[in-house]
Write a structure and sequence with these properties.
By secondary structure, the protein is of the alpha/beta class. 28% of the residues lie in helices and 16% in strands. It has one domain: Glycosidases (TIM Barrel).
Length: 443
């Protein structure tokens, strides 16, 4: 089997690159193709002509705790457990959209009934209320009792220590003005907790929440799970991160890993390993944080019945609140939707990608960006109609950045959406996003 490449990447040897490898594969199963493309950021010395690179993101090895939980072949129903987290652009755009509400054909529970409904559905907070933090109510996401859907982008590099924070602040302002209310960001063991705290503060000021990914498994595969690195780097990082930031409403949900996969050793034993590890890691999060939602970062349900069953069983685990899928625009993910529905979980498209640039970050054709904007608009509309609860583009490209050192770094790539991408005007001209759910008052 070809190795499944996912959205984020690991640091390439000798290169200071920040983007992320994006696969054009539709599942984690044996028949998935691995046409990996990447968003890249290349560092260059002053006075040298910029040559954008295509590569992967900085990797993190960050993690301590329980032995693998036992795993059964039978589906396990998601009994009551804590969960919740908030959901979650160009001054040309209308103000901020902190949250997006959608009905999916179901009536919204009142604010008072929301907590009780969430508890009955298996996502009640552990030991108290979680005001302003998103919760799961059956197959819906809610915030303070109101149904929500979120729309946004991936920006896995926002915590890169070489990226000036002023550039991140400008990007967040630009994104908010473009209707983005959620950013998926990578917070690994190597990253600075104080910088992450400042990013959360910035999210509050701009009306943007974060899906926080704690590790990347794209190039690690099966052997990383329950390894020394997992036990001694990742798990301590999970415990420290969740403990320190469990009260922050700017976090929409914790994502325990990006794209857990079997690499080139795909079999039923690997599926069980991934299931056991996701159960273990999500349980660790919930033992610390009873309010925020937890998701898996999975690519999708796969191509075969054993994969579908595994995906369903994983998302029925009581500590896992939200099903995850990564896909290209227009790609049929009916199996993912069906398995999430059978598991009784909301589902998010954590990465939606569509190639528009070549390896040097130049548009493939004169018309490709307008054509892609139309595809994304249609895909976003169809996804919301299908009941998808979150839609995150891969990924936001901030372009060429001047470093304090005097060099430059290029944040661009084959799938990038830049500040002036025609998509933003199209979404403003033909609004597809339901009315926002307001933020709770700042504590």
């Amino acid at each position: 089997m070809t190795k499944r490449l996912g959205p984020a990447g690991v640091a390439a040897a000798g290169l200071l690159l920040l983007a992320a490898c994006r696969p054009d594969a539709s599942s984690s199963g044996p028949s998935a193709d691995a046409t990996g493309t990447a968003v890249a950021a290349a560092v260059e010395a002053p006075g040298v002509e910029p040559t954008p690179a295509v590569a992967s993101t900085t990797a993190a090895t960050a993690r301590v705790e329980p032995a693998p939980p036992d795993s059964t072949a039978a589906d396990s129903a998601g009994g009551p457990v804590a969960s919740s987290a908030p959901g979650s652009g160009d001054d040309r755009r209308k103000a901020l959209l902190p949250m997006i509400d959608h009905t999916k054909g179901r009536a919204s529970a009142g604010a008072g009934a929301g907590a009780a409904a969430a508890a009955a559905a298996g996502s009640a907070p552990l030991g108290g209320t979680c005001g302003g933090i998103a919760q799961r109510d059956g197959q819906d996401l809610t915030i303070d009792g109101e149904l929500l859907t979120f729309f946004g982008v991936n920006a896995p590099y926002f915590l890169d220590d070489e990226l000036p924070e002023a550039e991140v602040e400008q990007a967040m302002v630009d994104l908010a003005a473009r209707g983005v209310n959620t950013v998926r960001v990578w917070y690994f063991a190597e990253h600075d907790p104080q910088r992450f705290a400042r990013l959360l503060d910035l999210g509050r000021r701009t009306g943007i929440r974060f899906v926080v990914t704690l590790e990347d498994n794209v190039f690690e595969g099966r052997d990383w799970f329950f390894s020394d690195d997992d036990e001694h780097v990742y798990r301590p990082h999970l415990q420290a991160a969740v403990s320190e930031f469990k009260d922050r409403p700017e976090i929409l949900m914790w994502e325990v890993v990006n794209e857990p996969n079997c690499g080139d050793r795909f079999d039923d034993a690997c599926l069980k390993t991934i299931k056991d590890w996701l159960t273990m890691s999500s349980r660790m999060v919930k033992s610390i944080d009873g309010c925020h939602l937890v998701t898996t970062g999975m690519i999708g349900a796969g191509n075969y019945e054993n994969e579908w069953a595994n995906y369903r069983q994983i998302h029925k685990r009581e500590y896992i609140d939200v099903a995850s899928s990564h896909r290209r625009t227009g790609e049929d993910r009916s199996h993912d939707l069906e398995q999430a529905a059978e598991a009784g979980r909301p589902i998010i498209y954590g990465e939606v990608y569509d190639v528009a640039y070549d390896g040097a970050c130049s548009p493939l054709t004169d018309s490709i960006l307008k054509e892609r904007a139309e595809r994304v608009k249609d895909d976003l509309r169809d996804s919301i109609e299908d009941g998808v609860d979150g839609y995150l583009l891969w990924d936001y490209a901030i372009g060429t950045v001047e470093l304090e050192s005097g060099g430059v770094k290029h944040y661009c790539g084959e799938h990038g959406f830049e500040r002036d991408d025609p998509l933003w005007d199209k979404l403003a001209a033909e609004p597809l996003l339901p009315a926002p759910v307001p933020w709770a008052p700042a504590p």
